[in-house]
Design brief:
By secondary structure, this protein is of the alpha/beta class. Helix content is 37%, strand content 15%. Strand 6 and strand 7 form a beta hairpin. Helix 3 packs across helix 7 and helix 5 packs parallel to helix 6. 49% of the residues are buried.
Length: 378
């Protein structure tokens, strides 16, 4: 019998998703229209509060792209972006032929460094152009330094696009991620804390921006009896079936957050006596992470274990792990663009690993992971 594989972050169904999918089939609304979409958007708006207007889309990447469109980002405009992130945070900048400017991380949250951000803003101003947007990221579910980043955003009057793709349910000072940006996004890709199989949302602060986003997401069709188009639109709308999955997943969201946080407690307990393996944790009580992925760094000059060796040992035992995101300023696609900071993100990439963090992680799975870690310690 083949040994069970322990995945990094697999989808975890709640049980009621099929009901909403069946509703879509029964009504014959299986494409980009239907009651599931409306209900999914309304439920997330109610969850987020804070004047949140939600547009359900085909991906988080589409949401970032539309956010840039709503802010009128165009060719040769500067857009500031965190370097330590998945490439989807940055790629839409190039869709619009704008110029990304990358910012290093700071040590407490691994997210955008306020000092490096201000250096980058001043650089852009010296070039004669104020940045059109700042794309912040809440990496692995950890909120960014909200107060410090928003202060810079407001002082220089540069809007924030809040990339909370990985941070649904995370909080800063008891306020939910997805509510801090002028525009915000959340992903429901298959590996996220809840999923719509593939999909995302754009969170606007006004009904006007929501209407505009929906217009652009549905091929910019104008309200006429025939197909009439005055500007470029996109096929970015979420399907009614995907939204049905999302409604079912929202029913178990709080359970999924708690399970991921329980996973963190497990790793905290197992790793407390390791000098070399450091678990990434909330810096203080202002931060509440959903711990979408639990991550570690291998530290010390005389480490016997490395991230490569640790990954190999887990792989040999049919357990999936993954290296941390490779920073954008290291990527061939983005190496020519400006980077501000001391390259902490490069250091993290060089020493870090993501550990299995799925909400379906069983006690048996945890025992197996613990046994492997204990053998490494010996």
């Amino acid at each position: 019998m083949e040994e069970k594989k322990i995945w990094l972050s697999p989808p975890h169904m709640g049980g009621n998703e099929l009901k909403y999918i069946q509703d879509a089939f029964d009504s014959n609304w299986i494409s980009q229209y239907g009651l599931n979409i409306d209900e999914f958007e309304k439920k997330i708006e109610d969850y987020l509060g804070s004047n949140s207007f939600v547009t359900a889309l085909s991906s988080g990447t589409a949401a970032i792209h539309l956010a840039l469109k709503l802010l009128n980002v165009g060719e040769n405009d500067f857009v500031i972006c965190q370097s330590f992130t998945f490439v989807a945070s940055a790629n839409p900048i190039l869709y619009e032929k704008a110029i990304p400017v990358f910012i290093d991380s700071e040590a407490s949250t691994w997210n955008m460094c306020p000092n490096a951000l201000e250096d980058a803003v001043k650089y852009c101003l010296q070039q004669g152009k104020k940045p059109k947007a700042i794309i912040t990221v809440s990496l692995y579910g950890m909120p960014f330094m909200v107060d410090e980043i928003l202060e810079i955003s407001r002082r220089y009057e540069i809007p924030i696009i809040e990339d909370s793709a990985e941070a649904l349910g995370s909080q800063y000072k008891n306020k939910l991620c997805g509510t801090f940006g002028d525009l915000s996004i959340i992903s429901f890709n298959g590996n996220k804390i809840i999923t719509t199989s593939g999909g995302g949302i754009l969170i606007s602060r006004t009904s006007f921006d929501k209407t505009r986003a929906l217009y652009l997401a549905t091929q910019a069709k104008e309200n006429k009896d025939y197909y009439h188009h005055s500007e470029i639109g996109y096929n970015y709308r979420m399907s009614n079936i995907s939204a049905g999955i999302g409604i079912g997943q929202l029913e178990v969201l709080e359970d999924r957050i708690q399970r991921r946080r329980n996973n963190h407690d497990f790793y905290q307990s197992v790793l407390k006596d390791f000098d070399e393996i450091k678990l990434f944790e909330e810096p203080n009580e202002d931060f509440f992470s959903n711990y979408w992925l639990n991550t570690v760094t291998i530290e010390g000059n005389n480490c016997i274990i490395t991230k490569e060796k640790l990954k190999k040992i887990f792989s040999e035992n049919n357990i999936e792990t993954r290296y941390l995101w490779k920073p954008m300023h290291f990527q061939p696609l983005y190496k020519k663009y400006k980077f501000f900071g001391r390259d902490l993100s490069g250091t993290l990439f060089g020493s870090g690993l993501c550990l299995p963090s799925g909400s379906d992680l069983t006690d048996e799975d945890k025992d197996k992971i613990m046994d492997i870690l204990m053998k490494i310690k010996i």
